[in-house]
Structure formats: C-alpha cells, structure tokens
UniProtKB/TrEMBL annotation:
Catalytic reaction(s) noted: a 14alpha-methyl steroid + 3 reduced [NADPH--hemoprotein reductase] + 3 O2 = a Delta(14) steroid + formate + 3 oxidized [NADPH--hemoprotein reductase] + 4 H2O + 4 H(+)
Listed GO CC annotations: membrane
Membrane topology note: Single-pass membrane protein
Chain residues that bind heme: 432
Superkingdom, natural source: Eukaryota
EC number: 1.14.14.154
Source organism per UniProt: Lolium multiflorum
Lineage, opening ranks: Eukaryota, Viridiplantae, Streptophyta, Embryophyta, Tracheophyta
The protein, known as: Obtusifoliol 14-alpha demethylase
Manganese is among the record's keywords: no
Family label: Belongs to the cytochrome P450 family.
Cofactor: heme
Length: 488
C-alpha cells in the first residue's frame, strides 16, 4: 500500500523551509560567525542560487555542499523562523538529548493529533507523552521480537508461495503489500489480519490523506482530504476499540503489540484506555510500515548491484540454514550479521527520514570539532540532515561507496564519532522505538528471498525521490526472479 498524499508533505516541507529562508532575505552574501557567536548565515539569495542544484542534484548534495563550505553549523535566513543546520555527532548531542522543555518537535507535528486522535502524542501533556513513549518502546523492545518471528515467517512464506517458478515483479510494489500484511498481523493482531485486512488497508490509505501540504498547515480546514482522514481515523479507532474490548471481555490474551499496549500501565497504576491503545497502534503502523518497505526495496537494489555482498549474504544463509535445520528462530535472525550490516549500510546511504527537525524553546550552545562555539537562539527551527551526517568522511571511509563491512567488528565506523555518528533511527529522546522490529521484518523477508530465489535487476539503479515525505527509490524496481533449490 502506498500513501500517495504523503508525497507532497516532504516537498511541501522543503518548499516551506525554502520560502521561510527566501522571505527572510535582506542581503545576498554569506556572513561568517559574528561577535555574538551566531552560526554563519546562508541568507535567502545565497540559498536561492542553490535552487537549480536542489532540483538537479537533490537535497543531499545541496546541503552537503553547504556543509563543506560552512562547516557543521550554519544558519539559513536573517530573521523570522531561521533554520539552523547541525551536522555531525559533535554538535547534535543537545538536539537529540535535550529536555522536551528545551528542544522538541513543538507544534510542527500537530497534524498527527488529527491522524491518530487526541488521546496520544501531542494531544497529551508532556508527562503523558513520555509515559506513552515508554509503552511504545516496551512493546517493541528486542526481547519481545521472539514472538513475532513465527507470524512474520508465515506471512512471508505464504506471500512468496504465490509467485511462480520464474517471472518479473516490481519489488517496491511487492514489499508495500507484504509489509502491510506483516504490520497488520504483528502490530494490530490476528483479528484484524484475518477478518478486516482489506478494509483496514484502505483506511490507512485514507488516513494518509492528512499528509498533504494543505492538511499539514491547516489540519482543521473542512476540505475533502481532511474529511477523508477524519472518517478513516474514526473508523479505525472503532475497529481497534472493538478488538480491544472483545479481548478484555473474553479474557483472551494474544502475543502481539496491541496486547502489550493494552497491558501497559501508567506510573500511577492506571491502565491505558481503549482510545490510547488504538491511537498508539495506528501511529506505530503508520510510521513503521512505509519506512520498512522503502528499506527493503533499497536493500534489493543495493544487493543486486553488488555481487560480492550478495554472495556473502547468500553464503551466510547457507551456513545458518545448516545450523537451524529445524527452522529459523529469533536466534537465527540475530546471527545474520552479514545481512544485518547490508541493511544497516542501506539505511546509512538511504535514510527514509533524510532530515530530522526540532524547535529550540531555549537557547543553547554547540561546539564544533574545530573548537568553535556557537549560540543557537531561542525560537530557532533546528534541522539535522541525517542524509549528510551519515556521509561525513572522517567517520565513514569512502562514504559514497556501499560497503557493509564498515560495520564489521574490525572497523565499526559508526562508533568512531561517538553515539550520534549513525542517526538513521534518530537518537536520544525520540530514537525510533521500532528499530528491532524493522530489522527483524526486513531480515525475515530477505533471508527468505535469498534462500529461495535468484534475481536479476532489470530497472536501472534508482535515484532518490526527494519529493516524498519519506525519501524513497524513484519509480519501480523491476527484477527477474527464478526459484532455486537451496542447499540444505
Ligand atoms: C527502517 C525502518 C525505520 C526507520 C528508518 C525509522 C526511523 C525513525 C526515525 C528517524 C525516527 C525519529 C524521528 C525524529 O527524531 O524526529 C523514528 C521514530 C519513531 N519510529 Fe521509526 N523507523 C523505522 C521503523 C519503525 C517501525 C517498524 C516502527 C514501529 C513498529 C517505528 C516506530 C517509531 C515510533 C513510535 C517513533 C516515534 C518515537 C518518538 O518520537 O519517541 N519505526 N523512526
């Protein structure tokens, strides 16, 4: 399933950022750090000059050029809501770890309240948000993954059983379908997966109507996309509430994430409400499904164009299949280090969230690697472009090269610059709570594909589509497949 209306969000966000910068332009030069130690300023006209490059080369190259020219901290705009870019582990500790009262998403994501309801996230006070974040992270923590292996394997095996002996498919489209099936089963539960999958899939598609630029800026406007989004939220909440109530009444307990959210307790001992559970589950599925299907597609594109790593990943599957003759379990997937690093390297080069954004509620200072100290004023929009920081040459050797071995035990390049050297899953307070789940499902998929099929990439290696909220491979990813007999 795609969320076509998401497409405009990222485009819109970038356009908005761009407009803010251009509107706030007064001079057409670049100011170096001034006596009050504000970061160097790339003003509107200087930024305007970059527009052709932005359209031609994409976000990564443009922000990277600015990083090379101005260093790890620079500001865009002169007054109004300036945007400060922070790039690299030396200057991003406060961005990731600051208290919510100091730096947070602010009202930037208030549209999420209209998508997932006011019982969760920004609809609640900060203390409740923090508790709900704890519920999410408890529900998705590593030790819970064991229970997802079997349902994930079932979904993956039955999905690919439907493929023929050989054929041609668009992997991007296949993974969107498959990831929705897995997410429904493991996150929402078997009641939804078995009885209401079609309706729920359509409703999530409709919920995505709230991701166009007008809805994001004016989420309350009575326009058709907002109405579709609201109708979808109300219906999804009802479907999930019925499932939750029926489990509570019957005393039935399942091994899925919905159950963990139902069983969660606030510090004062109170239970989560039906609306809270439904909202958290909807948000999880919405944020996690698409990023995982994008990453599965990039993994295909990278492996199929890098025969050495493809061969190493297949060899690992042969060894693990021999060891786990009676079937793959969670330990088997934990042992797939080669495949893990192939995916991790995909995420370094193609993070679905290319830029992370916060608002500074209080001023703070940062010190660069070169020892320069800058003050970031209160009220600033602060952005850290993961896509650029994941390519810093003093951390990642030959950063443009796909090289999963960089994460192997000898090199561990992501540890070189400290804990914010690798931020594809963010870090600190808002670190992705679904990382273990994401890796597991992508490994289950690719492990099955490597053990059962041979592939040939037909499409050219895709460019990145920056016009989407979550950056994804542009166009289709066609591959030719043939079933293989895997050595047992
Ligand atoms: C490859 C797949 C994924 C990637 C690259 C990814 C990346 C991210 C990033 C970068 C953030 C933080 C955004 C920020 O700092 O502003 C985030 C947050 C989050 N992710 Fe993921 N994610 C993935 C999969 C998942 C999955 C599968 C789930 C759930 C099943 C999930 C659940 C969440 C949640 C609940 C948050 C909000 C955390 C918070 O604000 O406290 N993610 N993700």
């Amino acid at each position: 399933m795609d969320f076509p209306s998401i497409n405009t969000l990222w485009c819109g966000a970038m356009a908005l950022l761009f407009i803010i910068i251009v509107l706030s332009t007064k001079r057409s030069m670049i100011h170096r750090g001034n006596p009050s130690q504000l970061p160097p300023l790339v003003n509107g006209i200087a930024f305007l000059a970059l527009l052709p490059n932005l359209l031609k080369k994409g976000l990564h190259d443009v922000v990277n050029d600015l990083y090379v020219k101005h260093g790890s901290v620079f500001m865009a705009g002169l007054f109004g809501p300036n945007v400060t870019f922070l790039i690299g582990p030396e200057v991003t500790a406060h961005f990731f770890q600051g208290l919510e009262s100091e730096i947070s998403h602010g009202k930037m994501f208030v549209f999420a309240v209209h998508m997932f309801g006011n019982a969760v996230g920004l609809g609640r006070d900060i203390a409740t948000q923090n508790e709900q974040r704890r519920f999410n992270s408890e529900a998705l923590k590593m030790s819970r993954m064991r229970s997802h292996v079997s349902p994930m394997l079932d979904e993956v095996e039955s999905y690919f059983d439907k493929w023929g002996k050989e054929g041609t498919v668009d992997l991007k489209c296949e993974f969107e379908q498959l990831l929705m099936l897995i997410a429904s089963r493991c996150l929402l539960g078997k009641e939804v997966r078995e009885n209401m999958f079609g309706e729920v899939q359509t409703l999530f598609h409709e919920l995505g109507s709230g991701m166009n630029i007008t809805s994001l800026l004016f989420p309350q406007l009575p326009i058709p996309s907002n109405r579709r989004r609201d109708r979808a939220r109300i219906r999804l909440t009802k479907i999930l509430s019925d499932v939750i109530e029926s489990r509570k009444i019957s005393g039935r307990v399942e091994e899925d994430t919905l159950q963990k959210l139902i069983d969660s307790k606030y510090k004062d001992g109170s239970s989560t409400t039906v609306e809270e559970v439904a909202g958290m589950a909807m948000a999880m599925l919405f944020v996690g499904k698409h990023s995982s299907s994008i990453t599965s597609t990039w993994t295909g594109a990278r492996l199929l164009s890098h025969p050495t790593f493809l061969k190493a990943a297949i060899e690992e599957q042969i060894q693990i299949a021999k060891k786990y003759k009676d079937g793959l379990d969670n330990n088997a997937f934990m042992e797939m280090e080669t495949l893990h690093n192939c995916i991790k390297e995909v995420l370094r080069m193609h993070p679905p969230m290319g830029v992370l954004v916060r608002k500074a509620h209080k001023k703070f200072t940062v010190q660069t690697k070169e020892g320069k100290t800058y003050e970031i004023p209160q009220g600033q929009i602060v952005a850290t472009p993961t896509v650029v920081s994941n390519h810093i040459p003093y951390i990642y050797k030959d950063p443009q090269v796909y090289d999963p071995d960089r994460f192997g035990p000898e090199r561990q390049e992501d540890k070189v610059g400290g804990k914010f050297s690798y931020t594809s899953f963010s870090g600190g307070r808002h670190v992705c709570t679904g990382e273990a789940f994401a890796y597991l499902q992508i490994k289950v998929i690719w492990s099955h594909l490597l053990r059962n099929f041979e592939f040939e990439l037909i499409s050219p290696f895709p460019k990145t589509d920056w016009s989407k909220f979550l950056a994804e491979p542009k166009g289709n990813l066609f591959v030719r497949y043939k079933r293989t007999s895997f050595p047992q």
